[in-house]
Every structure is written in C-alpha cells, then in structure tokens.
Design a protein that fits this description.
phospholipid metabolism; single chain; EC 2.7.8.5
C-alpha cells in the first residue's frame, strides 16, 4: 500500500519543501514571494488533515503511511522554520526549541515503541495545540505583511511562534513525564 492516494498526498509535503524554499530564490518581488510561499505552505499543510481523512474514508491506512505522515509534517515545519530564520523573521532560539523537541520526541516515541509502551507517549491535546500554533504562526511569518489592510501578520506570527515554543517545551515535558515510569520500570 505504498502508492495509495493518502500516501501520495503525504509525499507532496516532502516534495513541497524545495518548492517553498525555491520561491525565495525566484526573481520576484518580496511581497509576491511571500504570498506564493504562504499559499503553498497552507495548501501543503492542509494535506495533513486531508490524507488522514482519505486514509480512513477509503480504508487505505497503512503502517508506512502512519510512519511517513508525522515525518512529512516535521520536515515541512522544520524547513519553513529554517527559511524564516534565514529571512530573519523568527529567532534562531525558537527554531532550535521547536526542531530540537521534534527530534527528541520522535526519538522518545521510537524508543517507547521498542519497549512496547508507545501508548504512554501517544499524541495529547497539548501537542495538538502546539501544532496548531505553529501551523498558524508559520504562514503569518511567511507572509510578513498587512493582511486585509488591518492585521500585521509579522507581529501576530511572532507572538504565535513564541506561544508555539512555550507549548513545545510544555508538551516535551509532558511526554517525558509520561514515559519516565515506563523507562524506570525497564532499567
């Protein structure tokens, strides 16, 4: 079940990375680049919801899809954060917090799966809130302008990315606390 519609949609998030980065090297004016990159990020990020919905609806869930989905999400978010750091639209400290947490929690989940205790680090609401804050902050920061003539997306994006960073640390502590009893039981 490698070539199902949901898996192909998941793969588009990985393919999107060089496209979004490439927009910033295109011979376009900055507002046009920002708008194109923002739209691309939103469209490709939306495939995360859509591929899961289709996988369930079409009964095309697979272990490979379950593995690839969060990997594609993390690649897309990390690439966008690196672009934003390069463009000086977000602090490198924020990017390090978010990217470091993604690596640490991915490793923790892998380890807990190896121990047969993956349920102890199952996705929790705090992780979902962190993801939501990131997925709103990143397009705001990519756009970096005044939306609808009233909202400075750069300012809102900065607030949201810092909120995402706080939620990132909070969720990491939560997952580590949930895993600790399992880890202690195995030592």
């Amino acid at each position: 079940m490698f070539l199902t519609i949901p898996t192909l949609l998941t793969c588009t998030r990985i393919v999107a990375i060089p496209l979004i980065v490439g927009v910033f090297y295109a011979p376009l004016d900055t507002p046009t680049r920002n708008l194109i990159a923002t739209i691309m990020f939103i469209v490709f990020a939306a495939t995360d919801w859509f591929d899961g919905y289709l996988a369930r609806k079409l009964n095309q869930t697979s272990a490979f899809g379950a593995f690839l989905d969060p990997v594609a999400d993390k690649f897309l978010v990390c690439a966008a954060l690196l672009v934003l750091v390069h463009l000086q639209r977000t602090d490198v400290f924020v990017a390090l917090i978010i990217i470091g947490r993604e690596i640490a929690i991915s490793a923790l989940r892998e380890w807990m799966a190896h121990l047969g205790a993956s349920k102890s680090v199952a996705v929790h609401m705090i992780g979902k809130l962190k993801t939501m804050a990131q997925m709103v902050a990143i397009p705001f920061l990519l756009y970096d302008g005044v939306a609808f003539g009233v909202m400075d997306t750069g300012v809102w994006g900065q607030w949201l990315i810092w909120i995402a960073a706080v939620l990132t640390v909070w969720s990491m502590v939560y997952y580590l606390k949930k895993a600790l009893p399992e880890i202690r039981a195995r030592l």
